[in-house]
Amino acid sequence: AKSSATRGLSFYHAEMDAAERHRRRMKDELRLALAEGQFHLLCQVQVNLQTGEPCGHEMLLRWNHPERGPVPPAEFIPLAEESGLILPIGEWVLREACALAAANPQLGRVAVNLSAVQFSQPDLPRQVEQALAASGLPAGRLELEITESTLMLDRSRTLPLLERIKALGVHVAIDDFGTGYSSLGTLRSFPFDKIKLDRSFMAELDTSPQAVGILRAVIGIGRALEIPVLAEGVETQSQLEHLRAEGCDEVQGYLLGRPAPVPGQENAPSGDGTL
Ligand code: C2E
Ligand code: CA
Ligand code: CA
Ligand code: CA
């Protein structure tokens, strides 16, 4: 008879196979999703803390699976990255975000997330340029968000592409700041237009003096570099008051507004525009 340890092991393998089969199926379905227009973008408002006025919107990708329903980005983006599908998906996001922004001036500046994998494409700056040209969106109304981890991956490849993108007049923000390992040197080596403080700091803001200290330090970095600091994941009034007291420039989070369809686009078909 099998020992319980061996049974445990084969059970573990069976689980692995099931997980791996699921991932493969999801990748196949992701490929179809783009062709069939199952993706759409939501927008989440960014607010200037001084004036209380909206200053822009982050565009967030959603996959509405015909049977599974909405699949969270945390689940499908890693699969899209592994399979390389993030390249055509990312290009679609760029074009769709620019088109939505051009048709909706009230959105202000729109921020689009770029995956590290997209920097494997030497023609990324040209994709950005074409998305702007096709939509007629002025470059100054587009902001691209790059995470700290993207920068750390391969700076010698990423920075020249970012330089060319910036030369178009597009803004570049550093996303999820405080979760990676970028040094002040990294921040100085590229002219970022904004620092987005990761939302993990917000959770602790009400309870931890250290979190307040870090917030203060990051705002100091923003001052030194003469760029605004935006705090992500703001959920409570008391977080907002902390941020205001410390002189944070901009805020984004459920307190200000949840990710939502662009007004007027609620029922619009997404994808290639065919019905
Ligand atoms: P992110 O870039 O850090 O985006 C912010 C995430 O925080 C979004 O999650 C947003 O819905 C969520 N969020 C906003 N306010 C709050 C809040 O007050 N509390 C909490 N707990 N969460 C808040 P979402 O939309 O699920 O996206 C998750 C991640 O997926 C994004 O993190 C980004 O890394 C990635 N992602 C989303 N869209 C795209 C895309 O078009 N391209 C790429 N490459 N990645 C994307
Ligand atoms: Ca982001
Ligand atoms: Ca972020
Ligand atoms: Ca994030």
UniProtKB/TrEMBL annotation:
Coiled-coil ranges (or none): 9-36
Domain EAL: 23-273
Superkingdom to which the source organism belongs: Bacteria
Region described as Disordered: spans on this chain: 258-275
Entry protein name: EAL domain-containing protein
Source organism: Pseudoroseomonas ludipueritiae
Taxonomic classification: Bacteria, Pseudomonadati, Pseudomonadota, Alphaproteobacteria, Acetobacterales
